[in-house]
User: Fold these one by one.
Assistant:
Number 1:
Amino acid sequence: MSNEIFTLHVNGEARPVRDSWLGENLLDVLRDRLGLMGSKGACEQGECGSCSVLVDGHLVCSCLVMAASAVGQQVVTIEGVAPVGTPSDVQQAFVDAGAVQCGFCTPGLIMAVHDLLGRTPDPDDTEIREELAGNICRCTGYGRIIDAVQQVALARRADRSGS
Amino acid sequence: MSIIDRPTSTGPRHGALGTSPTRPDGVAKVQGTFEFSSDISADGCLFGATLRSPYPHARIVSIDLSAAWKIDGVQAIVTAEDVPGQLTYGLISQDQPVFASDVVRYVGEPVAALAADDPEVARRALDAIEVTYELLPALLDPELAINGQFDPIHPDGNVIRYQRIVHGDTDATGEIVVEGTYEIGMQDQAFLGLEAALAIPDPGGKGIEMHVATQWLHEDRKQIAACLGFKEEDVRLVLGGVGGAFGAREDISLQVHCSLLALRLGRPVRMAYSRAESFLGHVHRHPATIWMRHHANADGSIVKIESRMVFDGGAYASTSSAVLINAITLAQGPYRCANAVVDGWAVRTNHLPCGAMRGFGAVQACFAYESQMDKLAIACGVGPLDIRLLNAMTTGDVLITGQPVLNVAPVEECLRETDALPLPDEPVGGHARTDGSVDAMKLPGGAGRTADARDIVRGIGWGVSIKNLMYSESFDDYATARCRIESGPDGPTVFLKFATAEVGQGFVTLAPQIARSVLGIDRVELDQIDTQVGSAGSTSASRQTWMSGGAVNAACELVRSLIFEHVAAVYGCSAVDLFIDHTDVVDPTTGRRFDVAEACADVSFDETAVYRHPETSEIDENGQGNCHTAFAFVAHRAVVDVDPELGLVKVVQIATAQDVGVALNPLSVMGQIEGGIAQGLGMAVMEEIIQVDGVIRNGNFTDYLLPTFLDMPPVVATLIEQPDPLAPLGAKGVGEPPCISSTPAIVAAIRDALAQAGIDAPLNRVPVRPGDICL
Amino acid sequence: MPVLFPTTVDEATTALAAHPESMLLAGGTDAMVGINDGHHRPGATVISVNRIADLRSWRHDPGAGTLTVGAGVTYTELMDPSIAALVPALAEASRTVGSPQIRNAGTLGGNLGTSSPAGDGLPVLSALNAVVHLAAAGSTRDVDVNDFMVGVKRTALEPGEIITGVTVPVVDGWQGYAKVGVRNAMVIAVASTCVVVDRARHTVAVALGSVGPTILRCPEAESFLAARLDWDSLVASDADQAEFGRLVSAASQPITDHRSTADYRRHAVGVLARRLARRAGATS
């Protein structure tokens, strides 16, 4: 067990990491060392997307990132999306659209949707499905989630056109 | 209180029954602050890990813990000899050891558990435990369990249950006879929230508190207490956030192991499974082989059904007995049938233990009978919809157990309403772009670009099913709820307390809706879900809306009576005629209204109610008896694009009309429908646990495939709302029906597509694999 | 933490020479799966190659008619229109990889370094006869990709070497990639095929994934179609397309495992090859 310290930049803050080991993945470091429990692990293989975070602006599975290799990069987790109690438009849309059941996949999906809409503001149904195909949900069957994404896209479009 | 002037309202107010208020834990879940059981820890807690058998059947010769003990950071190691109470557990029969002691009976069976300072040390220590096994022949063929040609692999024998059904005239025959043998593979519940628990021993070690994700707190408590040698009241369970269940949490998994370690050390212990371990650590859907023969008249009306069903229950009994009964008693499907002979076995093998999964036996039976109905349709020259309409059951018709279906049974309406839903307006591959190309993502094969639109054929298929709600065979099925009103500076708040496991289905949303409707008070809070109130029964069998909903309703009605007495006393009117309309108490004799919140400004009421459904009976040696409580029905129509040469499929649309009684929260109902259909789709085309020689080969999400956004189509749904007079709120359970007939509908659509391409592929097995279609 | 972050290839090869037991880490989409389930440990040192700018870029040389792609270019970047215009099959293959999360991290170099017969970019590189660029401390060498991939997850990489990139020709003609998986997204290839029709050289290349210990070429099928194609329209007759498919099936060496059967895989690559040949003629 190595006690070496390295520092990760998470949600805009420098966070020292102690008591990690060389191969430990970023998800486990976020949860078990830094107390950021919002990202979830469900497969250990990057197949489910529950652990999705942004590293230097790219959506990745944190369970496949070696934590010690993320030194010097900007990590954004679900905790960094919006302050507690004031959900983002994507988060609120999920609640309003009935897109949350057990909620285990939800943080990863929120990250993926923010990333998707940041790159593709007006995705059609197929684009939404392809861009979110890395996030598995076992409860909802995806219908209400797609509805939530379309609601946000619609609202943001209305905002942009000033209506 | 003041008399207010407000007209009688029309329609429920937002937040009451019939509306879709958002779930109270929704914001926490989207922000990542909601605590799942894997997020819970305690200061100074240790980490538990489980050692599991690598063999399907072996004698344990010796267990050497010495090397493990030498590892720095290992704090406790327990085996079978450390179990202080009952050595075995189980939901129906207690046949499953906490730890294997003399024999291991499946790959993954727990042999030991240990606690260490951190998960890495725990993992290394597990590797250091040396177990010497003597391999035994494995019983892997269910037929050998039935014909007695294999020595018992368990003292209880190799047949968990055998049951026959004989109904009507067994010699009856029909002009048209169709038969087939159908196979259903082992599906996994694959909930995302992996198994996890935190056990905190009481100082003095005479009791324990456990935070765990489960489906039935009180049943877990009963089994844990028995194995620990504790009284039940000394085992306190608190529901940790549950990341889905679908039946996999009905049996206990890590509960006793975690408790034993915590008690041994006098310190909190956490345990959490990885995905690979989870595949071994919980029960699965029973694989089954079902032979069926239908006799019918020339017009397609069913005369007799014969069936032989074999369910592979794996190494331990779990709920196999009840799963089998569901399957055989529902063998006729939602159809009238006067004559039947059905034989069913649930057997023990050295395969992974099987138990509850959403649908619980009805899934397997439905694939068989719906495949049969399509065969019958072809043999009679009748269309698939018409054959189902012709035979459709209705209220009052009788099952092959002799039980009349007393519920609303709108089978014909389900079929007609589904048929009325529009077919997809996009052709194969979607509307062509201006350059004539189509989007590959809309074709089977997706991004793999395996086909062009010309290679694809579209098919349509039907499925319709019946599901029993709640528990059967005279099980004492009940739920408890407590309702109290407390005053505060901002007015009264209703507090609801129940042990109903919220696994994502939305009971925490529904319960406050009930209170708002019954009591007329909008501010409702939920107390912690734990064993400090009576049992709510299991979150399974599509029962909680009916049962826990019934209990919350009853508790609120008790409190409402107290409110009426209070209002009557203060105002001097009769309590008897008062009723609640929105947020008012109304006195119909005078037409006067009082604001409920005002009326309750200084009160404090507290009532607990237990709700029981009407009794059911057992079935006799001929399978006759009113063993089920209630029934729900649903129809599915699947549109599937098929690549006949490569055997790849894309489900394009699922249309459904479901018998829901009353949609108490329409958005939640839709969520259950879509989620259940996704699981039905998985069963149809991609999900199967593959075991070779008793060893799981695909215990991970790379190779156990769950439907993604690109596999799941849009769902168009009609809710058939005919309030059920037997249900406390008029509402039927909605969780299971969606995953039952969606599977055969999809397979039927594939067969239809292939038939159009001139290919006759029987597709008698689910999940359908590409080679089944094209080779 | 013993993680080294070289910013140039020289720094990386020097570090590797100094720590021969170290693990090279790019996207981690393969390596971390093995570490997470306890099958591998990273050893004493990890050399992260993600900060080497030269590995994260690609360069088109119009004079030589080639595209050189750095080993650290991700699958998302390989879908960039500028690459898709030059090497469309590579972009097509990249789109089939995993999910956006996997594509944002997984690299072509990683795919090559792992050399699984199911690696999505590998049939494309093979069919294009890509040149793999390797570097060690003080030396470089180039290896034909078909000589680089020697067996199941085995390569010709020597100790001290890292993959720095690949160079592929920009082909005048047609190319396409197709991959079979049981569901419509996020699948490990059960069978995959890349066909490259080179109008300038009148050659056809067919490379198969997941049907042998490594990526397979199909010389008989290639010369058959090359002799039958109309080199203006790139059209082959239906009968020739069918025979092409049969020859491709015959060249495959599939096994049966939990993902699929040998019979299905053999059948599938033949169908894919036939359809790709049809597509070659359809789009010209």
Note: The radius of gyration of chain A is 16 Å.
Number 2:
Amino acid sequence: MATTTDTANTEVVAEDGVRRRDFIEIAAVSAAGVGGLFTVLPLVSQMAPSKDVLAESTTELDISALEPGQSIKAVFRKQPVFVRNLTPREIEAADAVDVGDLRDPQTLAERTQEGHENILVVMGVCTHLGCVPLGAAEGENKGEYGGYFCPCHGSHYDTAARIRKGPAPTNLEVPDYTITDTTLVIG
Amino acid sequence: MSFPWAKHYEPTNPVAKFFDEKLPLPRLVYNAVGAGYPVPRNLSYMWNFGVLAGFCLMLQIVTGVVLAMHYAANDAVAFSSVEHIMRDVNWGWAMRYAHANGASAFFVVIYLHIFRGFFYSSYKAPREMIWLIGVVIFLLMMATAFMGYVLPWGQMSFWGAKVITGLFGAIPLVGESLQVWLLGGYAPDNAALNRFFSLHFLLPFVIAGCVILHIWALHIPGSSNPTGVEVKSESDTVPFHPYYTAKDGFGLGVFLLVYCAFLFFMPNALGHPDNYIPANPLSTPAHIVPEWYFWPFYAILRAFTFDFILPAKLWGVLAMFAAILVWFFLPWLDKSPVRSGSYRPLFRIFFWVLVVDMLILFWLGGAAAEEPYVMFSQLATAYYFLHFLVILPIISSIEKPKPLPFSITEAVLGSDEKSVMDNKSEPTA
């Protein structure tokens, strides 16, 4: 870029062959280059989530009325989240599985919080390609393992929402959440 | 194209050779703004503004595309989507202020570029086509800037849209239906906002196309220069790169200093506070003026207050458009064979009178529509047209120009013999 083809300009040449002008050229082009790079920062950053989107990043739910066997479909970061109060039979079925045989080995206890092992909170986003699995609402297909079933490409999740059959690579994601008394705060 | 002594692009590495055979894009760049484009050696800083205008266009396109990612062209949410950009979007404030002040910077640069053309008669043969395309670009810029100013849907946006489309309402017979057609309604509303957004996005790319034609036309005769004497031999020119890339680079640095001073320290200095009030179709702001870059033409529009054969409203609109359209005829109005104002003692005086007249029109366009400003506008408008239609043709026939230097080299060094590096090269007349 900044190489000079001007060979007539030989007035001041130091012993090492570096002219004063070479220094000025490199300094000027470097300053322009660094400055140019800094202008890329806002151009890239502007596409990241804006402040109003980030402000929506927690979801609060009242779970006092959630009876065993009932689910709530809620929205967290514009995506569905399933909150289920598991029945004793569902907990039993989840605990009966040999964790070593699972594609994504996790126990139910690892996927719930201490003292609230019956409350299972998972993102309603299939880990295969992002469809919403069925099974949270009454009468929906719960799949072969009694949990969730993704109709897009046939992934079956068990009662702990772990992947058991089909193309999905991992269990349904458990978001960060806290439970205080009857309030569930996701995010 | 170009002079016989122009350096030829010679790809050195295999990748460059491969590219040059299949798609000679590097060759195009080399011949357009590289060492392959010989440029008069005596260009002053007034020759920086073409490159700066190109930079402004790119700046506006980049920031504009970014803003379009966050803006919503709907009259219910447009105003709040602009506030969303200012408050919520990462760096949104910088993008919007860069775009708004970028428009002003673009016009500053383009006015200087145009007045450079006036002083050095850059419009004369063989460069008429460059000039004509340039005037088209200026008209497109004005249309684009106007429609962009409507998008925030504040008070000035709304009433600007109403007043400017009202200009078309002055046309006899079809005027009113034309205005309704332009707006898609009886007053600016969602239909107008949507089409203005669509066109505001499209026109910059049309401008970019015209800029390519402008530069293409420029590269046929080559750049003009402050003496107005055409290039005769190799000693009159230097390669664009590195000489003018360095000079333009320095000019760009100075430009950016001024631009950033506005952008970061007084971003609203050139705007109107009323545009931070959401559009209200039932109340016109007390003092409604367009953006500063339209002021001279706005002053001309308002100068016509009396009916004379045609209604005053129509005269105003005709005069405003004529004020720019007259530039199209400059190559034929100014018949003087001498290009540069430096060698035209009489022309030079009237050039500066025109500059003062233009500055007065700038002042009057921003002033209130009352006396004595209206009378001043009428005088300044009269002089404006007098300059182009009467004074300029008379000067070019009666003026005795100063003797021109034999060549650019002589103008620079005092003698052509001193520096002629290669006397064998054919002078191109």
Note: The beta strands of chain B are 38-40, 237-239.
Number 3:
Amino acid sequence: MSASLAAGLSDEKLLAAVAGGDRQALRVLYERHAPWLTLRLARRCADADAVSDAVQDTFVVVWKSAARYQGGGAVGAWMWGIAIRRLIDALRRRPRREFHSSERIDVEPSAEEQVLLGVEHGDLAGALDRLSSELRAVVQATILDGLTSREASRLLGIPTGTVKTRAMRARIQLRKEMA
Amino acid sequence: MTLAVKAAGVHKRLGSTHALAGVSLDLGDGITGLLGPNGAGKTTLMRVLATVLAPDSGSVRLLGHDPADREARPVIRRRLGYMPQEPGFHQRFTAFEFVDYVAILKEMTARRERHDEVRRVLDLVGLGDVAQQRIKALSGGMRRRVALAQALLGDPRLVILDEPTAGLDPEQRLRFRELISRLAQDRSVLISTHQTEDVAALCHHVVVLRDGETVFAGAPRELAEVARDRVWLADERSAGAELSWLTGDGRHRHVGNAPPAHAELVEPTLEDGYLLLVGRGSLAVAA
Amino acid sequence: MSPHVQSELLAAYAGGEIEGARAYSIEAHVVECADCQAAVARLVEPARMQRGWADIEDRLDTPRPAAIEAALGRLGVPGHLARLLAATPSLSVSWLGAVTVALAFAVIAAHESERGLLLFLCVAALLPLAGVAAAFGRGLDPVFEIAVAAPFSSVRLLLLRTAAVLPTTIALAGIAALTLPGVGWTAAAWLLPSLGLTVMSLALATYVAPSRAFGGVTAGWLAIVVFSAIDAGDRLAAFDSGAQVAFVVLALGGGIVLALRQDHLDLGRTL
């Protein structure tokens, strides 16, 4: 189909076209979703090459498996699920050392700073921010990105056991803060 | 400016046939049409010019080199594009794979650049969308376009196309003409065809072969002039006429001498000139 | 967070300045919001995205390598040569299948009688030759005319194909030979003849047309096999140690001739 026609279609319709072999439709999906996927992946991995490989792989997978998309409206979420797993794969193909996330190494805010930040009890966002970056990375991977412990361990480059203990520590700390 | 092709006195026997009996040909920039009936030697000549066949005798210079010189042949072939009359394809190949294969034979070893070039020529001939389909699933017209695409790989200086419009419908033939006329700048293109309209529309130079000999070389206008004062329209067919046929508007066109009674002299076309030169044997082609 | 993310916040996010829980909120929103996705798309460098798309397109276009091609790649053959070789008719699945069937029949015959063993030895010796001859065959390589008109040396292509076909066919024949009934070294008596015949045919093809070279060598050798069997009263006479030595000499001699005259294999001249 033509570029102008494709630009006006919903993601679901484009996916249906991709399932029929329409490359222009895939291109439009790429233009819509590749940017935010790239940014989101980059916040889980400092290796820019791995990120661009993962984005590429994602759209090749979309091309091949568009017919398997069940519907339900969450095309973005479906793509994210593919993308994060492609990133894990891309990282597995590369020799690497452990890293936590692309975030700065955080220092625990002091008591004064906590007051200054206006943090209150029951504030989940603040509680999350007060976790150390290692714990936060695990929370991000397992809860926000919906990965299994094994997938999280591959993404973060740490043993599965460590994922589980850190998740438990994070949970304990959050519960304490929210109590 | 060096002529792309300078051929003189080319002879070639194929089995017992004297396919080329002293053909001479000079090709400059632009599009040259090669006309002639079946068996006139067009394909044989094209094969010689594409360095696929070695002539028995005569001199040939292609892009300034002699193809008889073993060292010169790859040099010529690097700037040559050839579309055979009946190109063979590996049936299992897709259009992309086939053109990619030829691109490797044209010494494009770097994969990414080669693929970019394959995409370029397939888009040029309008096959961008079907590049991933198997050749055996493509229509005849599309297969011809695949064959044309491979001839355009690497932007060759000399392009030899043997019956490129055979089997194309009028719309496809029109698109082909547009494509070729765009290409013709800074390039020499030789097209063999039965279709005199292609020649009239595209070519600034025409060569007519008959029985392995050159019977005409010049501008299309001059070919039409050959039939000056020899073309007539009449209401009925002339008895004993050689070249006479019923046209679409109900009158009979007659080319040659001895016009029928009450015939009206008309302006000759390129086709009339061609028919006059190659004789009655080609009337079936003109119909 | 409000239904939409303010553009400054998105720009800050795109610049990597937002972290922690606020980043998570933004991400959770963007994944489902087409407008914010579009806003992010405007913030990312277009050239980078276009390069990414070109890479994807090339991934989709790149033909999936045939098994032969992948195998050759693993052996260290450069990608473009592997592609060319994979298109060799005598490396195709159908051809190799036919070779396997022929060998199977010959093995069965060999189990039955000594005449069958002679048949096997002849078949095993000639199959590699047939495979190489097929690489010359115009009828079998449909792209022939276009290939000749291309700069890649036809001779080089032919020799590369020979180098790929010979070991493959010989390996198949070797496996078949292992299933022969206990005949000791005779089971390998076809190996040197196959190499010698192939090299001689190629050397001869630098003088005469390939079909004549391959046909002539095959016919001539089969005649020798028959006559020597009758003459010596021993069916396998053409495979005895004298013959093996002769083939070594012929292979070396033929190899030298071929090396010196390989340019005469250029098919454009002999078409």
Note: Chain A touches chain B at residues 23 (CB under 8 Å).
